[in-house]
Write a structure and sequence with these properties.
Layout lengths: L1 H5 L17 E5 L1 H10 L5 E4 L14 E3 L2 E3 L1 H5 L6 E5 L10 H18 L4 E5 L6 H6 L5 H18 L2 E3 L25 H12 L5
Parallel strand pairs: 1-2, 1-5, 5-6, 6-7
Antiparallel strand pairs: 3-4
Amino acid sequence: VSALLASGAVPVSDTVEDTYFEDAVFIGDSRTEGLILNTGLSNTTSYVYKGLMVNTVFTKPVIKKDGEKISVMDALKTTDFSKVYIMFGINETGWAYSRVFQKKYGDIIDAIQDINPRALIYIQGIMPVSDKVSSEHQYITNAKISEYNRLLQELAKEKKVYYIDTETAVISADGSLPEDAAYDGIHLVKEYCEKWLDYLKTHTVE
């Protein structure tokens, strides 16, 4: 396992069943919300919210527990889990300082390790957007996404957690998201969410 941590992204492994995710928590924004909804992965825990970011995951009350709304990280403290899948970055591409994104992401990993030191933590690479979005959007660009993914790979090595290059599950030859992969160039349609899940099921470390 330690050799794997030093070697970069999680390599191909035997395919796991959906039951693998029963003790997992998925944390992310609307893209992860789409993954759960479009694949019917209902046997896992998902703490997701549209527009959620690496800083608001600690503060924004979006998860309903016992009749009140609390933050994702507070919800995690009351959750039994052995694995965590994290995906953030698309909403943070407009941030002025890339290292702040990396630092805040690191805070999430530290907090998870405090809650459960034995948990497997998977950082998922940020998927690209379509050429159209990348060239026309005010701040979301594939160049920025690539930069963030390099920082996340650095972070994974530093924190001794696992990086899954999920972006390769959906990327086209030119490094962008295919036009038919997302209805708005960002959020994946059902077929591509299934490609994403298949990639997770063939890239595990257990």
